Structure formats: structure tokens, C-alpha cells
Amino acid sequence: MMDSKLDKQDSKQSTPAVGEWTPEQPEYSGIAGIWPKVRSRLDQIGRDDTGLDATPRRIFEKREHEPRYALLNDTETKSENRYGQKIDLLDLTRQPSGKPMFINENPVIGENPNRNKQHGFHFTADNCIGCHACEAACSEKNENPAHIAFRSVGYVEGGSYPDYKRMNISMACNHCDNPVCLKGCPTKAYTKHTEYGAVLQDPDTCFGCGYCTWVCPYNAPQLDPVKGQVSKCNMCVDRLEVGLKPACVSACLGNALNFGVIENTPENREQVKAAIPGFPTPDITHPNIRFQQKNSMPNEVVRTDSMPIKYHKTEDGDFRSVVDEKEGKDTFWNIKRLSSRENPLVIFTLVTQGIIGAFLIGAVAPWFGFESFSAVSESGSWLPLLFTMVVLQAAVLVLSTLHLGKPLRFYRGFNNLRYSPLSREALGIAVFFAGLAGYTFFELMHSWLDWGLFAFGTGVSAFVALVSGLVGLYFMHCIYRIPARPFWNHWQVLTSFFGTMFSLGGVLVALFVVLPMAWQGEEINGVLTACAAVTCLGLVAEGVGLWRHAAYLNTESGEGAASHYVQCTTFGKTYWLRNVLMAVAASGMALIAMTGWESALAAAAFVLLAMCAVVALLIGRALFYVLVIPTTMPGAFFWKNKGFEEHARDVGLADMPQVGVVANVH
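Predicted structure:
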């Protein structure tokens, strides 16, 4: 068995990644070298390295008489794959050859002549009998617990008696040409190696955010809620180094799995197709897996798991995903099911967006000639609101950190600013929080001492918070523009997040500043109507986005349309409650804004409308996380079946480790 971790220092120096994604790490010095040293020191906190044996061990224990089918045997290879990318990774990256991978601290270099060419799996669907031997061999080799499987077998089926057919699909990581997991990971836990083109992930670097599990279309990275980290198929590079195919391939009883240099047609095979029924589009990542499927399938096949998805044959013979209305058309509330392990993100996104909006209204809007808001920063309630926002923002930052599998390693989230929107969002919101705290401090000091230095500090802090808040909010939206999650991959996310900034921002300013001003008899000079107008603007922006999103999904097919089907049935009544509350709040706020109504009755109406808006936004954001259906691989009746997992948690089966279901935690 290969250790779960390569020697990190040596492997990063010796095995540069493929293509443009991971240039060689520069040597930092001076100020630029401070952060890597600090991060390295932080990584040592809490580690217990006692008892670790650094003595080099064998890469892999190879038997004397391995069967022929377990040996790598590519003799001829092609120069490019079907996507036009070079298969020779040294030629692609112009990196030197002959570097060790330091597997198990061993500096030995594998003797495979194709060691630096992109390898991949070949799956013959006609041969797979669904015995799960590949799963068992993989899990045994990697010592996986029951709830984690790097390779899993699912199936699709269709037809009617006596011509009923089932097709099994065995799937693991596809070590893609464009590994979106690598680009999305904020900690840089992923590396695509020039050796075999393997995309390797270091669980020790991972801090358990699970973002790679969102962006991968094939459900390859596995988030372990028990250990708080992600792990995945490592292509069995230790076996490859000694000339053996991966463990799953060697264990396959039906000769369905094979492995070798990509685009090569295995012995006794005719096809190297890019997809089969149930396999998500290869256009997202250019996966390194090829298929043979000669047996005909019905024009429509279904999944046996709980996903409302089936696959329909198109005129060109390919299968595309469409909605499977297996739950009927009845509508339900299902309020309890709005709760998910993403609840911390529901709170974090809503509160952060509202605080950014409130800050822009009170501190920045007067810069641009919105005189109605000048009274906000001059009010005696402005400083208490600022302190409240600092405390709230700190609280939700802590909440989002606790959402990680390894909260104490949160600082690793800034490692991949070059590519990961999660890293960029984290930096943007962190700088916004610093700007907000600085602005609050300088405002407090300026209220005591009328010094120009404090006024200057207030202006600089406000500018920093303005820029970083908007940038952070933009990248917060980018996090969810994921091709592997079509329900999210729409511009509606942008209107939702920025709309919430205005709507909740207006509510915060009105409730914490304007209404106390009116209660104390201060002149509010149209601030209430201005807050109502801003709140209405945010609700209308979000409503327009939701309307166009629903119209788009009604004309689409696949996972996005399936999410909308669940929204209109499983959560149908809750969905319409959200829409009605949002419409009522927007209409009422528009009425207050247009009439200039600022009496005590108007204040009471504003409070009621604000409650409607907050409830609508809370429901909508919870639905946002609960509804999304990824472009994942089909599961089985029990294994990799969300419906069965929910049932196991409801009835207590999840308490039995052998069931392979754990508590719904993150």
C-alpha cells in the first residue's frame, strides 16, 4: 500500500505539475518569504511526529509471478489525445525527466518507458457484472473506512420485460487534463504530476472545505466528515512505478477495467469512446477515461438512486440527462428539510452581504451625492451599528471557519489566490472586515478627538472596505458558478448576492439607525423612504434574477431542470411562500419609498415588511443549497444513494459503521 502522503517537500521540488496550472514554486526571500515561514510554523502546531519512521521503504511489494493482465504493457502510443493536448507530458510542460516521486520516502525511479505520458482508465461497460470487486480492492489497498470509496459502481437501467437491460458503471478519479479540483482547491492540496499525468491530493494539506467535491463532475474527491479532510484515487502510482496496473484493474473479475496510456485501445477492444449513458459531459474537464459499450440500450434509461434524473438518447446516439418526475407533481412544505450541513454558509453569506450593504449605505453613499443617507453617519446610533456589524462579521467568519473540517488550518485558504475563487473571496472578505474594523475604530476616535489624522484614517478605511467588500462579494458569487452544478451556474447568483446586499443592508440601517432616530425625535429627512427604496431595489433585483432563472430552467433539461422540479414539488409550498413574501415586501417598500411616508405607522409597516423580506431571503438561501443536484455519476440502490443515506440517518442505520453512512456533519 502506498502511504497516504508523498514526501511533500521533495515531491513539490521534484515533480512539477502539468501545463500552466502549477509553475515551479519560486524561492521567496525578504518580506515575501515571511508568510510561507509563518504558515509552515503554524502547520507544526498540534502535530505529533513522534514514532514516525523516516526510513525509506519499498515503493510497492511486487510478487514474483504477477499475472499478465496486471502488468502495464503499452508498446506504442499516440502523440496527442482527442482534445489536441500532447500525451507526452514532458513535451507539454518542458520539464526535465527522471525525477523520483519519493513514494514512501523512496528515491527510486520507475522503469516504465511511458512514465511521463498521460495514463488513464478504460472501461468496457458490456463486461461489468456489478460485483464491486474493484471497489473492494481499492478500499482495501487505501485502507478506506466503510463510508469512503475512491471507486464506486452504480448503474442505469431501462426497457420492459422481457427486454429489460441494466448497465453497470465503475468510476473513480479520471485524472483530467483540466482538473477543476486543482484549480478550485484553496489550499493547493492538488498537484497534477508529469509522472503518469496523475492528479494527486494531499489530505494533510487539505483543511476540509469540500469545494473540490462541488466542482468535480464525477464525485471523485471524497470528503470524510469524520477526519475533516478530502481524499481521492491516487491512480495507484506506487503500483505503476513497479510496472503494475492499479489495484481496481487487477481485481476486475469481468475484464471490464483496463489501464494504460490514454487513447490506446486495449487488447481485444474496439472502442475508445469519450462517454456512455450516465457519464457527465467530458467537456468540463477532459477526463482521462475511455469507454467501450457495444450492447444496445433502450432509448431511455433511469437511475436507481433517488436523483430525479434519467437519460434520453438523442438523434446522434448520445445520451443526455433529463428530468425524471419520479416523485409526481404534488407540492409539499418540507420545512425541516431546508436544514442542511451548509447552514453555516446560509448564515455567513446572508449576514456578510447585509453588512456590506449597510456599510455602503451609511459610510459610502454620501460620497456619491445621496444626501438622504448623510444623516445616518451623523446619528448617535451609527457607532452602535458599526460595533454590531463588526461583532456580527467576526461571528460569521468564525462560523464559516468552524464549517471547515480542520478549522485551525483556516489560513491555508489563501494559498491558491491565482485560481481559486474561494481563496479570492476569503481574502476579499477578510480585508473588508479589517477595513470595517478600522473604520469603526477611527470613527470612535474621531468622535472623541477632532483630529485630521482620524478623519483621514476613516476615509482610507472606508475606501478599503468599499473595494474589498465588492470584490469579495463578486468572488463569493464566482464560487457557485460551477458547470458541475447547473442549478447554480446562472447569472441569477450575481443578482441574488448583490440584491441581498441592498435589501438586507437597507433593513439593517433602517432598524438599527433610522427607527431609533425617529423614536428619539430626531429629524430623519427622508432616510426611511431612502432605506425602503434601497431595500426594494435589492428585492426587485433578486426577484428578476429568480424569474429569469426559473424561465431558463423550465426550457432546459438535465440536473438544473431537475433541481427546479424538486423546488416546485418537494418544496413547492415553501417555494411559493418565499415568492409571495418577497413580492409583498418589495411592493410595500416601493409604496413607502414613492409616497415619502415617514409616520409612526410607516415605521411599523417597514418593520413588518422587513420581517417578510428577511424570512423570504432566509428561505431562498436555504433552498439555494438544498436544491442543487450535481452532474454526478449514478449510484446504486443503497450505495451512493442520497435517498438511502437520508433514510439511514432518520431511522438510525447511520449508527452502524458497516452501513457506510455517517452523521450529516461537515
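Summary: The two ends are 28 Å apart (CA to CA).
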